[in-house]
Structures are given as C-alpha cells and as structure tokens.
Amino acid sequence: MNIAVIGAQWGDEGKGKIVDLLTPNASIVARYQGGHNAGHTVRVGGTEFILHLLPSGILHPGVRCVIGNGVVIDPQALFTEIDTLAAQGIEVGGRLLISDRAHVILPYHRDLEALSESRRGDQRIGTTSRGIGPSYEDKVGRRGIRAADLADGSEDGALASAIRANVSARNEALGGAAADWRALHADVCAAARRLAGWVGDASVFLARAFEAGECVLFEGAQGTLLDIDHGTYPFVTSSNATVGGICTGLGVGPRAIGSVLGIVKAYTTRVGEGPLPTELHGDEGDQLRESGREYGASTGRPRRCGWYDAVVVRYAVRVNGLDALAVTKLDVLDGLDEIPLCTGYRHGERLLTEFPGSRTVLAECRPVYERLPGWSRPTAGVRRYEDLPPEARAYLGRIEALSGVPIAIVSTGSDRADTILVRDGLVDRWQAERALAAQESAP
Ligand code: GDP
Ligand code: IMO
Ligand code: MG
Predict the structure, then answer these.
(1) Which residues of 76-106 are buried (b: 16+ CB within 10 A; e: fewer)?
(2) Which of 139, 236, 302, 391 could form an S-S bond across to 231 if both were Cys, CB 3.0 to 4.6 Å?
(3) Is 12 a catalytic residue?
C-alpha cells in the first residue's frame, strides 16, 4: 500500500507537486536521502511553498513526516525552513521525526566543498554548495556526527572530540583563518537542544506504522541520473536517489516499498555540470527554459534544457523497478510545431538503446530523434485525459511505449489542481486497494 516517488531524470522533475497530490492517501511521508540540496515546489491556490529538507507532506495537516538516517541534516537550514513555514501558517510541531542515525552538516562541510569545487576548476561538479558531499564523505570515512551524538554537551565528550578533529582537518586543508572548534561545539549544543524533541528511532516508528496498517509515501530527492551509483558519475550527488536508498536510508525492508512511481518532465533538464545528451544550446534551449521557468528552486541557477530522452527514462524504469510514470510540465511544450524525442544514441557505427556506464562513451553519443507533431490547442490547465489534443495524447503514448510502463499521472500546470489522474492507472489501483483494506479492517 506504500508508494515511492522517485525522480527519473536529473532532478527537478516535479516530485514536490506529485508528493503533495498523493499525500492525502498517506499518513506518513518520509525522506530517505539527500538534504537541503533538494528544492521541491508545491503550489496550492496561488501560494507557493518550496520544501528543502522537510518532506513535502508536511503541508497537509495531520500528516507525520520522517527524515531518515540516509538524509544529511544542516540543523540551521532545518530551523530556517521550519520558521519560514510557521510564518506561512504551517506548524511542524510534533509531526516531525528525525532519525537518530542521520548525519549532520556543519559549517566546515561547506568550507571543504568550496575548496574542492575550486580545486576541480573546469571539472567542477557545480554542486549546490550546501555541504552535502563532504558530509556524506565524513559518514563513509567514519568520522561523521549523527543526530544521536548531539546530546553530549561536555567539552571532553565524544561529540566535542569529533568536532575538534573535524575542525582541525578543515583548518589544515583550508589554511587561512582557522575555525574555532569550541565556538562550533557551543553552537552545535544549542542546536541540539532545539532538535532534541524531534530525534528518535525512525526505523522502529515506521515498523509500528506498518503494523498498524498506515500508509507511507517515500519522497525521493534529486533523480536517478544524479544517483551516486547509477548517475552520470562523477557529476552526481553523494547519495542513492534511486529506490534502493529507501531501504538503507530509512531502515525498512524491500517489501515495505510497495509501488514505485517515477516522475519525468515531458522534456529534460539538469542543473550543474555533467553530460546531458539531448541538451539544446541556443534559442531552442532558451525558449524551453523561459516557457518552463527552468531556474533552480534551491539555488536559482538556470537549468540546462533538452528534449525528452527515452534512453534515460527506460534506464530509470529498470534501476528503480518503476511501476508507472507521472509526466509533468506537458503544458511547457504547448505551441511547438514539432517535438523531437530521443529514442537512442548513435555511438560511432553503433546504435545504443541502453544508457552507457562509461563517461567517455556517453560524451561521444549523439541523440537519435524521432519527431512527433506538436499541438496548437493548449494543454495548460487541462484536467481530463480526453480533453488533451490528440497530438499530446500521441506524444504521451509514445513515452509510454518507449518506457515500457504506463503513465499514471499527467501534470499540466504547477498548481495541485492542474493534474490528470489517468484512469485505471497506478493511482486508481492504489486508492482502490486502500479502500478495500479499510473495509476489511473495519469492525
Ligand atoms: P522537484 O525538485 O522534483 O520537486 O521539482 P522542482 O520544484 O524543483 O521543479 C519543478 C518546477 O516545475 C516547479 O517550479 C513546479 O512548480 C513546476 N511544475 C510542476 N509541475 C508542473 C507542470 O505540470 N507545469 C508547469 N508549467 N510547471 C510545473
Ligand atoms: P531536487 O530534489 C536538481 C545537483 C547539483 C549538482 C549535483 C551535486 O530538487 O530534484 P550536491 O549539492 O548534491 O552535491 O550537487 O547534483 N543537484 C540537483 N539538481 N535537483 C536537485 O534536487 C538537486 N540536488 C542536487 O546541481 O549538479
Ligand atoms: Mg527541485
């Protein structure tokens, strides 16, 4: 009965909108990886919310939210987000649970990231500068600090000693003005006092929720092609954004995952550096960027834009075991005469239909396009599948055929209401199953 929402391209596919849409069917929404590098936009009746670290389900009263052990948390960024939401009338209160195993991001992580990016020169990743990568490096390097460690306020305890060692490594790496570990320790202890009420065992919490028949929505951040293992390495983020991250990042078993919904834009974007086979340079790219308002929700950076890449999405279907797709931003393609769609890559004499692992090969690939007719009647705001122009339906049909999975949702605008729930799709089945389960458990 649970459902996972996963980005099937390079992030910013519209996961926030879809999570918000599906949240009424869940009582818990859980993030399992990433951190405040994410920017998930939810638009409800003219009000826009951008969630970074908090699961997007927090906007729904009564829904509880989990930040799993696989997430890296910048306490100050979390407080800012909670305070901003409070100012918008959304109270987090006791609805949040942060895994005691989640690692924290501290200021030295951002400093080290700036150093690493500048050293890379033209090989820089183009990160979000949030300290995400260095925090995961500390985790894997077994010198990270977890939420559970923050309770130790003494100057000769384990927390102080870890901060001291990490600050000393930072000072050695950066030179220049040294950071003061004591000042940081005091800041961390103050933050720990505010965090304490939210920290607990998320795995136990979720296990009890499953036993009680509650429905959980797993909210992915970033996207499949930004995954540390399956993405366009090294131009990726530092976590597993793909489905496997749910088990490791929350402490749940694979059977807890339920259905897996992949979110795709009706075209492709990426922010930061790295390969993007269908990228459009010049006017066409600028036009997509402007029509789609393709500027980062976290950093404001312009997103690189290109045509829909079926090789990428088929890859995402495979590595995540996607059951269905939600296609967003169909309206952005309104008014085009013709819409190219990439069905394979030309590599020398060969035609590749599987996404290559080698970055050298990928750099040499040229997209092979099929061209579909555009539509003149706008799809913006259309809420019934039957009301879509036949050419738009044909375009979606081609996406389905090339991906091998059905489309469950089509989004035609940023607002919650501008959505088509495709009949007999995953969402219908999911709602029907829940209704049946509720009947069966009724006295
Ligand atoms: P996320 O990171 O996957 O949650 O996506 P972002 O929020 O970073 O970026 C998606 C952007 O597209 C946001 O500005 C959304 O408001 C917007 N959006 C989502 N769905 C649609 C849609 O169907 N049409 C249009 N025009 N905008 C959309
Ligand atoms: P959501 O959840 C798009 C990109 C960065 C950079 C790379 C590594 O909103 O889809 P990092 O700071 O994570 O070390 O940066 O990953 N990136 C995203 N791109 N959407 C995101 O999140 C992203 N989070 C990170 O631009 O290329
Ligand atoms: Mg985003």
Answers:
(1) ebbeebbeebeeeebebeebbbbbbbbbbbb
(2) 236
(3) yes
